[in-house]
Inverse folding.
């Protein structure tokens, strides 16, 4: 089974230091920038540090029970749950929310944290159920959804027990910058 395997490094490690304070003098990101798919355990799209940076699907009317944009997913306003094949990517375990916050928690808003990008367009794609396991099929559905929505960057903080040709081929077929 595929599972979440967070790889933690110390922020004191010079290999992971990104000099964010200097970078923020140049830019804090943009809500008109690239679409970043966080392919993980979902995201708490209602979190006050994330709400403004979730790339909503303007083709959907949230909560009406209809696939307004005709993409095969009902009410995928905030993203996609590829594990349960629904339009609700709410994170039930926290890992994807943490990753999303690291990438794009709004800065300078008197809330709890700040992401590398204070402004961004993040697409939550939930490929794990709330106990942290997934299937190859869910991963493939998640990658296809992110591709179809036009993501140009993906974050993939997960791993599996062995090589999967199908997952490899899905990444190869998806012209984006994949961070794994």
């Amino acid at each position: 089974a595929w599972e979440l395997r967070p790889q933690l490094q110390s922020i004191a490690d010079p290999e992971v230091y990104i000099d964010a304070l200097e970078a923020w003098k140049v830019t804090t990101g943009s809500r008109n920038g690239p679409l970043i798919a966080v392919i993980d355990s979902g995201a708490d799209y209602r979190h006050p540090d994330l709400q403004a940076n979730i790339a909503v699907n303007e083709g959907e009317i949230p909560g009406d029970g209809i696939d307004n944009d005709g993409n095969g997913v009902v009410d995928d306003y905030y993203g996609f749950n590829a594990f349960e094949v629904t339009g609700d990517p709410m994170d039930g375990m926290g890992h994807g929310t943490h990753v999303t916050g690291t990438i794009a928690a709004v800065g300078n808003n008197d809330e709890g944290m700040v992401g590398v990008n204070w402004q961004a367009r993040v697409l939550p794609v939930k490929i794990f159920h709330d106990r942290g396991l997934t299937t190859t099929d869910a991963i493939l559905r998640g990658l296809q959804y992110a591709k179809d929505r036009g993501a140009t960057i993906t974050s993939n903080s997960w791993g599996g027990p062995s090589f999967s040709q199908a997952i490899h081929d899905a990444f190869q077929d998806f012209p984006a910058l994949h961070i794994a």
Remarks:
- DSSP finds four helices and seven strands in the chain.
